[in-house]
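so my prof wants the structure for this chain in the tokens format not the other one, which i didnt know existed until like an hour ago. anyway here's the sequence
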Amino acid sequence: MHLIVVGLNHKTADVEIRERCYFPNETLPKSFDLLKAYPSLSGAVILSTCNRVEIYASVVNVKAGFDDITDFISCYHSIPRETLTPFLYKKNCQNAVNHLFKVISGIDSMVIGEYQIQGQVRDSYYAAQSNNATDSYLNKVFQSAINTGKRIRSETAIGQGTVSVATLATELIKKVFSERKRFHVLLIGAGKMAGLTAANLQEFNGCSIIIANRSLTKAEELAVRFNGKVTAYDKRYEAIQEADVIIVSTASENYTVQFEEVAKLMQLHPTRTKMFIDLSLPRNIDPAINRIENCMVYSIDDINQMIDLNVSKRQMEIEQAEKIISEVSEDYYNWYYAQIIMPTMHEIKSKLDILKTSTIANYKSTFGAMTDTQQGLIQEMMDAYSEKLIRVIMKNIKTVTSKDDMVTIVEALKNTLSVDTAINEEIQSFKKREQ
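here's what i got, hopefully its the right format
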């Protein structure tokens, strides 16, 4: 069994590709049903966020697993393989494990150390479990990853002082409206991102907030927290007409702010500047609005480009996080390798036990009459020798870094010790004498 991951992220694909590959939460049961139908996949976890789409899986055949996951993403999202493949990365075994640990720690994020990813990985794993899509390999590695994320958060300062997408959005607003004493913001959506954005907007004394959401109750709850007002979702275009900034963080599969409607509004006030900020994936603001005069549309990728990519300030924390990853990885690899070694070790030990009994029987005449105590002592000595031999073999095998090499060595070990020939002959001889 191997662990593999196939995916794409902000480093390999822009928002147009990522949104096409996105897996909404409500479609996950169907997604897992289709994934589990692929014969090469023993288990799978789908991680889908604004900045990455990754599928982790346990497989026997790595190449077949890579091909099947690529085929699944291609077919599910109706993207030709030749279009999709250039954006994908594929990792297996230790590389896949280390990648997951770096993802959950925030090292692989656009914003180094961002904390949302830890909960996103955890929730993705739980979703796979609830859909009966995981196995012992995936359970072990994701439980190890979750513990790794917790340790890194508590033992390093990697997440301290990080900027969020919501923070960057408000910084962008500040730059554009720096000379305005008052301006109106419309938030479409009332989830976590909307809450973070509203909290950041509190620093603007002249900012008034209006909230539109499909669930009026959620909109009202958010409005109470941040002294805002509420408008009905189906009246959002009337609110857009009055707003200077429109921030959308919804989970719709289609545009919730459409080009045609905004174009009509701008004909009424053609000189009024409007800023549209889309924090959704898939995008919920039609990017064509950017073509309308005095309208500016910013996607989540545009916001992310404002991030200071110089991570030197966090280098010490990254190094500490990587040390923790190395420690946890060692524990996982010990378990992982044991899954390969232990069946062979049990087989060898059981046959060594029979060979021990056979050897003692052969030397009974040489020893003469032995008391039960003497016979027990000889058995203990031979047991100790067998256990020591097994421990030495296991310790040496664990130093092998490649799982493929380990499988080869284990098979060679069987042949070298003649487990299938000499010992079997001795076993049969012993059985005949006992009869």
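also thought this was worth mentioning. The CA atoms of residues 27 and 365 lie 74 Å apart.
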